Inverse folding.
């Protein structure tokens, strides 16, 4: 059995997969801002729900940049953690289980790209949740050269001010501006404004990466049906449009893409 861990800014998801990819069980718990409290909560959750499984390997998905060779998270996006020895710390709890550490958007992109691999070989995966992450998957593998791209940190000019893309186009920004979560927004004018903000950054990514398809997932991406057509319109009419707009599609598993990516990543490694 394989253990998948998705560490998010607001919640952490644990899941166990059979060797053939069947999801056998999952459990969420709030992600504490205090890393040591997070480890305590992780240990309690694992021992209460997954200790009976015979585990062979684990993949831990984290936001931000990763030192893959040493299993260290260099930074964690919207979590105020830095230079954390994730593989070592979790390994102590998991009894020395082999642990791979990878960026969460890369893993989400991997699982979604493999679902469309027969049709598209170069995939840009965009996850819109608390922040914005991206994964570039080429021929069914995470692209090593762009594995730490952190698209959400791109500097974009909006209303005469240069700022990080995710500071005005993420789920966190959506909540701050309108006082609502994505699931509670039905006003098409709000979604049009949001689509405009997403297009400001995505236009830049399309020019650099030139993907065959863009897959959008994450907590806000779950509501792609509300803004997908608006986003396509914004990109097509962008004054600085540089390339043809590829298909934009909703992730097949917008909130579970990462744990499935953990499974696929382990399969590619072992």
């Amino acid at each position: 059995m394989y253990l998948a861990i998705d560490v998010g800014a607001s919640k952490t998801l644990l899941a166990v997969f059979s060797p053939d990819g069947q999801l056998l069980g999952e459990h969420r718990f709030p992600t504490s801002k205090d890393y040591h409290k997070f480890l305590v909560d992780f240990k309690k959750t694992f021992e209460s729900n997954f200790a009976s499984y015979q585990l062979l390997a684990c993949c831990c998905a984290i936001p931000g940049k990763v030192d893959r060779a040493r299993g260290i998270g260099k930074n964690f996006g919207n979590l105020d953690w830095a230079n954390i020895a994730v593989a070592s710390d979790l390994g102590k709890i998991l009894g020395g289980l082999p642990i791979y550490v990878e960026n969460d958007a890369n893993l989400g992109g991997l699982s979604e790209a493999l679902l469309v691999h027969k049709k598209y070989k170069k995939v840009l995966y965009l996850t819109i949740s608390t922040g914005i992450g991206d994964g570039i998957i080429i021929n069914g593998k995470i692209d090593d050269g762009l594995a730490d791209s952190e698209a959400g940190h791109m500097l974009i000019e909006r209303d005469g001010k240069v700022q990080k893309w995710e500071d005005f186009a993420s789920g966190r920004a959506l909540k701050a501006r309108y006082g609502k979560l994505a699931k509670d927004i039905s006003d098409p004018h709000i979604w049009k404004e949001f689509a405009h903000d997403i297009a400001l950054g995505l236009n830049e990514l399309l020019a650099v990466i030139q993907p065959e398809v863009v897959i959008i997932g994450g907590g806000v991406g779950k509501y792609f049906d509300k803004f997908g057509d608006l986003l396509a319109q914004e990109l097509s009419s962008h004054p600085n449009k540089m390339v043809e707009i590829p298909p934009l599609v909703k992730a097949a598993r917008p909130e579970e893409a990462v744990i499935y990516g953990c499974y696929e990543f382990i399969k590619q490694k072992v």
In short: The CA atoms of residues 75 and 82 lie 5 Å apart. The longest strand covers residues 23-30. The chain has two domains: 2-103+256-269, 107-250. The first helix runs from residue 35 to 49.
